[in-house]
Amino acid sequence: MRPRLIGDVLLTTPLVRALRRRYPEATLLYLVEAMAAPIVRANPHVSETIVITHRRGWRRIAEDWSIARRLRARRIDVALDLHGGPRSSWLTFASRAKMRVGYDVSGRGWMYTHLVPRPRGYAPRHSVLNQWDLLAPVDSAFLSPPDPDRDRLEMPVEDAARGAIRARLTSHGVRDADAVIVMHVGAGNDFRRWPAASFAEVAAALAREGRGRALVVVGAAGDTPTIREVASHAGRAAGEDVRVVEAVDWPLTELRALMDRASLFVGGDSGPMHIAAAADVPIVALFGPTLPVHWAPWRPARLPFVAIEPGPLGCRPCDQRVCEPGDFRCLRSTVPGRVIEAATRVLEKAS
Fold first, then answer.
1. Confidence of residue 55 (pLDDT cuts 50, 70, 90)
2. Alpha-carbon gap, residue 313 to 298, rounded angstroms
3. Do 296 and 247 lie in a common domain?
4. Backbone angles phi and psi of 219, in degrees to 5
5. 129 and 164 co-located in one domain
6. Residue 183 sits in a domain of what CATH number?
7. Domain span at 225
């Protein structure tokens, strides 16, 4: 069970692959909320995806009872709660699985048969390793740590999504020979939101410096003003041989297909960055309140990755609930020039 979020669900896929490798004949069910369901629907190691809705109040209670009945009917042997939140822990308990594994979280430990310690505070350890700990009670074979080469993030590209992306790019005048640069300019909260003006400066520089390029500016529907501002700056700077595409709320499956077509991904520590990590595309990622040691792309070290960090700050990392200085300096102190330099260097090496 890992209900959300996009990046967090992607970071469980090494564990899913390992379970399938160890138990090739097992039935592997994955419970996830609808928004992140496309991450695992096409996963070849998952037997069935159980999709729940992000609800509140009595509707959530009613759905949870219904899901609990479905889970009990499946006579589950092992339930892994990869989230540790109130809802996933209760559903793990309500499944009546013989073995129920979860983190030792205050007030919820009684719902599991096997508890795994979770360090307090911000431990300098990758999220994939933290989730891998939950496999140890299941089988001693999982005591060895995961290998990013063998156990990398996984999100297969669906044929329909590949065709849809080809059609979208063609409709915007993007040619097969063009180098596609994907820029994700959105964020789940203000703590991870690099200023639109900074993204716009990077986009304009990348559009101005290269020929035969296409900039695809990506974000959710709520990011539309930022997407338009960034694309507008890039469009004014671009020559005739550069295309600029506004990608508002494209489906996750198509975004994954886009990463296979891309020559570079630029964006913050976010779900789309982890979708890029499931591909071989070079990544330039901005880290503000979070640290690369915890959230860097989990994939082979041979694939290009540049982390842009603000430098030492007493308030970093943080829990992303209250900005102590009040000015979100961990991201706003990062100047566009550093990102432009890193992106240009990566593109030159790839050419």
1. confident
2. 25
3. yes
4. 180, 170
5. no
6. 3.40.50.2000
7. 159-350
